[in-house]
Amino acid sequence: MRSLIAQCAIVLLAAAHASVDAATDRIVKIEEAGQPPLLYLATVPETAAPKAGAILFVGGDGVVGLAEKGIPQPGDSFLVKARKVFAEHGLATATFEPSLASAPLSDQLRMSAMHAREVERVLKDFRQRFHLDRVYLVGTSRGTISAAHLALRFGQKIDGVVLASTVFSSSRTGPGLAGFDYREIRAPLLFVHHRQDACKVTPPVEADKMRAHFPVLFIDGWHGSTDHACKPFSAHGFLGREEETVAAISDWILWRSEKTVNP
């Protein structure tokens, strides 16, 4: 499946998984003189050193609520709900939380130098703390605005980027990624999208157009919800397919990492 993901679009119908209990969650606090403190949720495999890492960016206002609510149980974003699947595949994750100085994250803040500085602090700590040679950026919904713009800024500081439920269109809340040139991103890029995504700013037809230049993974089938079409508990948030989607993203990250080690 890894080679297919790298070459073409895929419709993922189902996947089988082993136990995902062998993972540890902890909230990491970064404190530096003259800088606002930062929190991130680290989820790492229990039994072996991580093969690679991924920084996760949720949608909406970007706030996970680590300071107020603690570790999400399980969380709203599909990336957070299925975070232990990353660990099952041998990956460490850092769920990003903006500081009090930058939260909530508007589209403009996600594109800003302030946001990039905060994420770079997390990237540095995450890489050093867990001895990671390769780190990827993974964003969903409005988190794709962060991941895409950060990938432009970071260049070779990251090893790849995954955009899930990409905000291709502008809306009253901001420009999204309308007009963004994805070909300027130098790191390997994967799009992940749900065939039944009914959110107006994340139309599947736009993801289909990306196939001309990038690998695109399409997810099909979901467990119905009355949630708003642009909210997590819908096809937009891969409802009922969270674990399969995260497993496929993990496979792509591992495939890219193995290519880097063994070209």
Task: List the topology elements.
Layout: H1 2-7, E1 10-12, E2 23-30, E3 38-45, E4 52-57, H2 66-69, H3 78-81, H4 83-88, E5 91-97, H5 107-110, H6 113-129, E6 135-140, H7 143-154, E7 160-164, E8 189-194, H8 204-209, E9 216-219, H9 242-261
Parallel strand pairs: 1-9, 4-5, 4-6, 6-7, 7-8, 8-9
Antiparallel strand pairs: 2-3, 3-5
Helix pairs in contact: 6-7
The tally of strands reads: 9
Main sheet? 9 strands, mixed
Please tell me the overall pLDDT: 90
How would you write the strand order of the largest sheet?
A: 1-9-8-7-6-4-5-3-2
Low-confidence stretches: 1-20
Q: Please trace the helix and strand order, writing H or E for each element.
A: HEEEEHHHEHHEHEEHEH
Question: How many H/I helical runs?
Answer: 9
**Coarse shape:** globular
Structural class: alpha/beta
Cα distance, first to last residue?
A: 18 Å
Q: Beta-strand level of the residues, as a percent range?
A: 15-25%
Radius of gyration computed on alpha carbons: 17 Å
Helix content: 25-40%
Q: What do you see in this structure?
A:
The chain is an alpha/beta fold and 263 residues long. 30% of the residues lie in helices and 20% in strands. It has nine helices and nine strands. A nine-stranded mixed sheet has the order 1-9-8-7-6-4-5-3-2, sandwiched between helices. Strand 2 (23-30) and strand 3 form a beta hairpin. Helix 6 packs across helix 7. The relative contact order is 0.18. Residues 1-20 have low confidence and may be disordered.
Short description:
By secondary structure, the chain is α/β, with parallel strands linked by helices. Helices cover about 30% and strands about 20% of the residues. A hairpin with a 7-residue loop joins strand 2 and strand 3.
